[in-house]
TrEMBL record:
In the C-terminal section; belongs to the class-I pyridoxal-phosphate-dependent aminotransferase family. CDD domains: AAT_like, WHTH_GntR. SUPFAM superfamilies: PLP-dependent transferases (SSF53383), Winged helix' DNA-binding domain (SSF46785). Residues 14-82 form the HTH gntR-type domain. PANTHER family: HTH-TYPE TRANSCRIPTIONAL REGULATORY PROTEIN GABR. Transmembrane segments: none annotated. This is GntR family transcriptional regulator. InterPro entries: Aminotransferase_I/II_large, HTH_trans_reg/aminotransferase, PyrdxlP-dep_Trfase, PyrdxlP-dep_Trfase_major, PyrdxlP-dep_Trfase_small, Tscrpt_reg_HTH_GntR, WH-like_DNA-bd_sf, WH_DNA-bd_sf. It holds the Pfam family Aminotran_1_2. GO terms for molecular function: DNA binding; DNA-binding transcription factor activity; pyridoxal phosphate binding.
Length: 460
């Protein structure tokens, strides 16, 4: 820069130091302050703006907390590159292809600014009190709006929505309202391991359903329901975990027809719905009178943002969920949904999701270029987990060889409910810190896959 930075403070009632940080952020985003630019010494800037030195010093400190600048003793404060602000960090140990988590750096870049914005909200202190058992009305309305915007659930009813500490707790509330310990619960032959963990903890008996390229089949559902007497069905219709399959509209309507004919209760885990914006409508739109709809933001905005929600099919089911919430937690936590709700209301959530979708699509393309045909076809270009179908023994061999090579995949036994039906290896794409690390992990898997193929050939 040819002249010292002299910001124009935005109007408003916020403290001057906060407005100075906002001016800095705006100038960084516009390019007025390019990456690497050195900010004026605090005393000089205070003199030119007619401010107290303490005000400017606090603004610089807050800007560093927000990731806008980096301060170096004896050298000054320098503007961070946009890609370096709260960027991804690599963990120690094997490359992580096992955890199905959302990319966290899009949210990390804005969390500091969000905290500053939340400090100015007049209802901030309200979140220190116990919330109603279903959550604060503002949060519930925001969650319903998010389901409509991100996952096509246009009829989401906030009055039957319960906020909770993540979608896993939402599943627990739904299961607790629909089933009793000892009951048979139907699910896909391979399913989300969190459903298995919940069933083991609460004493439900899982029965796996045969699957095809769209997920559980209506024929398998009807046969298993008649044979076992089960009344509860837990399904992931969109980007099924672990296989990534999506039920067509016709398949969803067939599942609903069986559920109505046999009076079954559906528990729909739609946590990945936001990754497939073109997917058919949720089961809860097709059969609202018998479907618990579970979702959240930890898989789409940030893993540590434990803000989930579950919509009950009727008032009686809602009351049963609220009884459970009061018994296990008294009330949902307020601050996770405070952040999520702020992002939903001001559009930040949409921007984070768009960035995550774009990066996920690039990661899917990278995985396909390295692993090729062995990968199952993907139902969405932005699926966050990929499926390598193979027998159980080969899957265990692949997992072991990959781990010895330095990459950890999802344990092959983790999703299996019915052995021998749907088996393989799930590759989660979101935990790797960047595409360089992801590529290294995928090449380890490719080498392990080649070794497994060689070992599996018959020898004569």
């Amino acid at each position: 820069m040819t002249a010292p930075w002299t910001p124009a403070l935005p109007d408003g009632d916020a403290p001057i130091y906060e407005r100075l940080v906002e001016a800095l952020r705006l100038d960084v985003e516009s390019g007025t302050l390019p990456a690497g630019a050195r900010l004026p010494p605090q005393r000089d800037l205070a003199h030119r703006l007619g401010l107290g030195l303490g005000t400017v010093t606090r603004a610089y400190v807050e800007a560093e907390k927000a990731g806008l600048v980096s301060a170096h003793v004896g050298r000054g404060s320098f503007v961070n590159a946009p890609g370096a602000i709260a960027g991804p960090r690599r963990r120690e140990g094997p490359i992580n292809l096992a955890q199905n988590v959302a990319l966290n750096w899009p949210a990390a870049r804005v969390i500091g600014e969000t905290m500053q914005r939340l400090r100015r909200r007049p209802d901030l202190a309200d979140h220190l009190d116990y919330a109603p058992a279903a959550g604060l009305e503002r949060h519930r309305r925001a969650a319903a709006a998010w389901l409509g915007r991100s996952a096509g659930f246009a009829t989401a009813d906030w009055t039957r929505l319960v906020c909770c500490a993540g979608a896993q707790q939402g599943l627990a509330l739904a299961f607790g309202a629909a089933a009793r310990p000892g009951d048979v619960v139907l699910c896909e032959a391979s399913t989300f391991h969190g459903i298995k963990a919940l069933a083991a903890h609460a004493g439900y008996r899982l029965q796996g359903l045969a699957m095809d390229d769209e997920g559980a089949t209506p024929e398998a559902l009807e046969e298993a329901a008649r044979r076992t007497g089960a009344r509860v069905v837990a399904l992931l219709p969109t980007l099924q975990n672990p296989t990534g399959r999506i039920m067509s509209l016709a398949r969803r309507e067939a599942i609903v027809a069986v559920a109505r004919r046999l009076d079954l209760i559906l528990i729909e885990d739609d946590i990945y719905g936001a990754y497939a914006p073109g997917a058919p409508p949720p089961l809860a739109m097709l059969a609202p009178e018998r479907t618990f709809h579970v979702s959240g933001v930890s898989k789409t905005l940030a893993p540590g943002l434990r803000a989930g929600f579950v919509i009950a099919p009727d008032d009686a089911a809602l009351e049963r969920m609220l009884d459970t919430m009061r018994a296990i937690a008294y009330a949902p936590p307020g601050f996770g949904m405070l952040i999520a709700g702020q992002w939903i209301e001001d559009g930040t959530a949409d921007a984070i999701l768009a960035e995550i979708r774009e990066e996920t699509a690039a990661r899917v393309a990278l995985a396909r270029s390295i692993l090729g045909e062995p990968l199952a076809a993907t139902a969405s270009p932005t699926v966050p987990h990929l499926w390598l179908p193979m027998g159980e023994l080969d899957a265990e061999r692949l997992a072991g060889r990959a781990l010895r090579g330095g990459a950890e995949v999802t344990p092959p036994a983790a999703p299996i409910v019915e052995p021998g039906q749907v088996t393989g290896v799930r590759l989660a794409l979101g935990a790797a810190s960047d595409r360089v690390e992801l590529e290294a992990g995928l090449r380890i898997v490719a080498a392990a896959l080649a070794d497994v193929d060689e070992r599996s050939r018959p020898v004569i």
